[in-house]
Amino acid sequence: MDGNMLHGTGILPSPDLSQNDLFEQVFRSHFKSLHAYACTIMRDPMPAEEIVQNIFVKLWEKKADLSIRENVSGYLYRAVHNESLNYLRHQKVRTAYQSYAMREHKRSEQEKPAEKVVMSELEKRLEIALRELPEQCRTIFQMSRFDDLRYREIADRLGLSVKTIENQMGKALKLLRLKLVDFLLTIILFITLYN
């Protein structure tokens, strides 16, 4: 930030001012008016103050690379204007997303009770169907599906051949399908209607 950039702002650079002092002088002479300008755009003093502070922070961070060839005051007002508009656009997008998220949340909350009822009913019917399976068939099915054991592991634990395990699993799946077919059609209908 060199002394030339302050020309026309009402601040005359002094050769004995350091870069820090010069920056502080610009900050003190412009902050209030920039904040008031941002408030007219934002209609809220808190984000307006944040925007003006951010502009000065960016100005400070880029001071070594920054070369303002115009009036500093004009540069700062344009920066406040642009940042304020960007903030308002961002808020608009954010509000739209929050509205969308709330609608989706309400919709999913409305669906959950129905899903819970269906899942509860499925669990009850599955439990009844499992109890009706022959004991060895039920044991093998539970070890496979609930304990996540492979057919070889089940065969080793029960002292049976892998082929017997395969046959018993096939039998269990066929019997469960037959016992749950009516309810599975209801679930398919439910999924189709609510999705």
Q: Care to describe what's here?
A:
With 195 residues, this protein is mainly alpha-helical. It has helices at 19-42, 45-61, 72-131, 135-145, 151-158, 162-194. The longest helix is centred in the middle third of the chain and has 60 residues, at 72-131. The protein is elongated and about 95 Å long. The chain starts with 18 loop residues before the first helix and ends with a helix.
Element layout with pairings:
Blueprint: H1 19-42, H2 45-61, H3 72-131, H4 135-145, H5 151-158, H6 162-194
Helix pairs in contact: 1-2, 1-3, 2-3, 3-6, 4-6, 5-6
Quick rundown:
The protein is mostly helical. Helix content is 78%, strand content 0%.
List keywords for this structure.
195 residues; mainly alpha; 6 helices
* Gyration radius from CA atoms, angstroms: 36 Å
Kindly state the number of beta strands: 0
Which percent bin holds the helix content? over 70%
Mean pLDDT metric: 79
Strand residue percentage: under 5%
Q: How would you classify the helix and strand content by structural class? A: mainly alpha
- Uncertain stretches: 1-14
What gross morphology would you assign? elongated
Number of helices: 6
H-E order: HHHHHH
- Report the biggest beta sheet as strand number plus sense, adding barrel if it closes: none
The CA-CA distance between the termini, in Å, is: 60 Å
